[in-house]
Amino acid sequence: MKPFEGIKFIAFDLDGTLLDSVPDLADAADKAMRALGRPGVSVEQVTLWIGNGADILIGRALSQSPEVAPDLDPALHQQARTLFDRFYDEGGHQKSALYPGVKETLSAFHQAKIPMAIVTNKPAQFVPHLLEQHGISDYFSDVIGGDTFPLKKPDPHALHWLMDKHQLAASEMLMVGDSRNDILAAKAATCYVVGLTYGYNYGQPISASDPDVVLDHFSQLTGVVRI
Predict the structure, then answer these.
(1) Same-domain pairing of 147 and 170
(2) Which cellular component, as a GO term, is one annotated location (predicted)?
(3) Following DSSP, what letter does each residue of 61-114 receive, concatenated?
(4) Residues 13, 20, 27, 30: which is the catalytic one?
(5) Among 90, 111, 127, where does a domain finish?
(6) What is the mean pLDDT of each run of 10 residues along the chain (227 residues)?
(7) Is 55 a known active-site residue?
(8) Together in a domain, 202 and 117
C-alpha cells in the first residue's frame, strides 16, 4: 500500500471509526421510545440508522424506518430527542469501547507530532466526556460536533474550517471515517480520505463511496500516513 505524501493533519470521525458506540445509542433510543409509549428499537436497527446526527436518528426511531416520516409531529420529535439525550447521558456510555488498535495508533501519530481533530455528527455536548473516558482527549487539537456549526457532514464546512485555522492545503489533510458522510465531506473539501470497513454505513460497503484507501483495521493507518 503506497503511503500518502505530505499529510500534515488528520481529521477523524468518532462513532464507528474510533468508538463502537451503538450499544449505548440503542439503549438510549429504546428507552426514549418506550417512555413515549412507542415501539422500542434494537441494536441492529440503530446500527443502520446512525451517522446523520441525533435528530435524524430519533426521527428514524419514531418512524421505525431509515426514512423519517414526512408527517412526524415536531413537538413529539423534540420530546423524544430530549429524552434520548437524558438517557444517553445517564447511561454513562458504559457499553461503548474503542476499536482495536485505536489508542496505540493515535498515540503513534501524537508522538510523531501530527495534529489531529475529531469531526463527528454526534452532538458536541457528549464528545469531550467520551474522549476523556477512553483516554484519548489529549490527542486532538480540535473537537467538532454535529451542532458546532450550522452544517454537518456530508457538508465540508468543518473540514474547510480546520484548513483555514491550521493554514492547510487540501492535499495536506486526511479524513478518516466509516460512513459515506465522511467520504462525501472529504471529497467536497478535496482532501484525502480513508474509509474503514468495520463501522456503520447504513448496511452498505464503504468501498461503494470510493474513498482513496479502504482499510479493515484502524492500525493499518500507520502504513498510509508517513510518521
Answers:
(1) yes
(2) cytosol
(3) HHHTSSSPPTT--HHHHHHHHHHHHHHHHHTTTTT-EEPTTHHHHHHHHHHTT-
(4) 13
(5) 90
(6) 89 98 97 98 96 95 96 97 97 95 98 98 96 97 98 98 98 98 98 97 95 98 92
(7) no
(8) yes
